[in-house]
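Aim 2 progress update. The chain analyzed this quarter is reproduced below.
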Amino acid sequence: MRNSCARAGARRRWLRCVLMAAALMIVAPPRAWSESDGSCRLLAMTELAGMHGQLLSDRATDLLEALKYWLLAAPSDATPPIDRVTACLSHSDAMVRQYAAEVLLRYADRAAPAVAALAKAVRSDSEARVRGTAAAALSAIGNPANDALRELLLDANPRVRVTVATALRGSQTISEELRSLVEFASPPIGKHAASAIPDGSFESGDDELSGWQVELHDGAAGHWELDATRSRSGRRSLKLVKTNGVGYIDLRSSEPIVIPPGKEVVTCRLWFHSEDAPISSALLLRVEGEDGELEMGDAARSGFEQQSQTHLRNQPPHVWNKRVLELKPSDQARRLYLHVILYGNPTTVWLDDIAFPATPWKGVSIDPIPPQPRYSTQAVLEKLAGEKPAHFAVENDGKRGVMLRDGEPAGTVLHYAFRPGNADFGGFDDAGVALQVVRIPIDDHAGVLGEDRFGEPAMGPMWPSAESSEYDFREAVRRIELALRQMPTSRLILALHVNWPRDYVQHNPDTKWLDQRGRGAAGNVMFLRGFEEELDEGMIWWPSPYQSKPLEDAAEVIRGLVTHLRSTPYWPRIAGYFVMGGHDGQFHIR
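Predicted structure tokens:
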């Protein structure tokens, strides 16, 4: 009898909590929250959690809705329950932890009680975006977080040190003590160890090269010199000057470098500086085997390396770029000559710190830091009051295209970040960049690309379904506002990133993209995988980019967006837009 009564009581308590949860959802639907609804719902969920274990409090979907309210809809003078938001930093769902860190960043002036939990997240959270957002929140909290920030800047983990230092560099207020620790935690360069090259830093001898020889090939004209006025380290560097447009200059090791057998990738590394190199110039790092053939290395991981390790890119004074060549491990000893080859039109390049084999370079990648706006929305609106749109145009001056703003040159540098949530709009504005690009997604993703992919909190997808022509432009306006809160002077170019809704082919079957064998184009929400007879789980059919209807439907959304933006106070800051999509943003088809 006692057991049956206990079970009956448990059922009654369970039913009471279910009815309370249902009442909450009916009274406060997620899309119609007010300030009191949001705080009460988060409070109610927490209270229910205390009453009834994991019935509701551990449901990620409910917590995400409540946290999104505080991120996207709550009035600025409202205050979320900081202790409950802080508790979400330990939730098992990574997106809940990310949104909780975002809320604490937004309400940083009231988030001092969360300092310890945020510091723990920076050190140990499994997701980079959570760690980076937590670092930004600590930076924004300011003085109450100084002790925690000091410990993080001295942490044994270099990733922690550099992430926190990067967040503090974006802070508007930083103490002198922390400023010096930032420099300590993230020094500008790393040192390399000795290599088999006898004089890779060009320090030995007076006016002669030690262990090197320079040759001119195929009609090249030019010279070399040891330059004591410029170096990356030590006293001097090697200066190569090419004075005509044919042939190439070859800096070659005078003797072969013996590479012993081993199981690790062997790296060659050098640093170079150039200021006047035309785009047609190239600086090649090559090895010559015993057969006399030149190779670019056999451990390249992608085609991007062929470009990044070939083009001769100019730098500001005192800045040096790195060039790397990698060789796969071998169980045989190898004898290799090292070549540094300068191709192209007249140019000058300085070389320093050549190492082969080089100490393996272990870079420290920082966690992504979310935006740190400098201005409130009200301050931006006041600044824009009465502002008129500027006229931008690209004209050809007979030699090249020139960007003009109201008829005057506007500079040739653009800032574009695929993820605007991690873009440094303020830094580029400080550097005088007149135009910055904000990516606006036109899709049904709502900021989340899948269960295994992180996305930024979003107010909703612009193109929810192909079934109707109802579009939601709130997220586009939010992204534009967030960018303008970081930059006081720059103008915006909108990158309209089109990905058709996942149900597009379902509602428009005639647009299905077919190959010559009748197979359909299949992929995920962003990348085309290939042509298939049937869809695998998680895949969708893609519409054909060669048909007019998918393009016309996307154009209709874009026209609606532009019309809507014209009615906002942010329109004067929008200089133009371009359309992108597909694998690489150019609708490129592999």
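Residues 104 and 111 are 6 Å apart (CA to CA). The mean pLDDT is 81. These observations will guide the mutagenesis experiments scheduled for the next reporting period.
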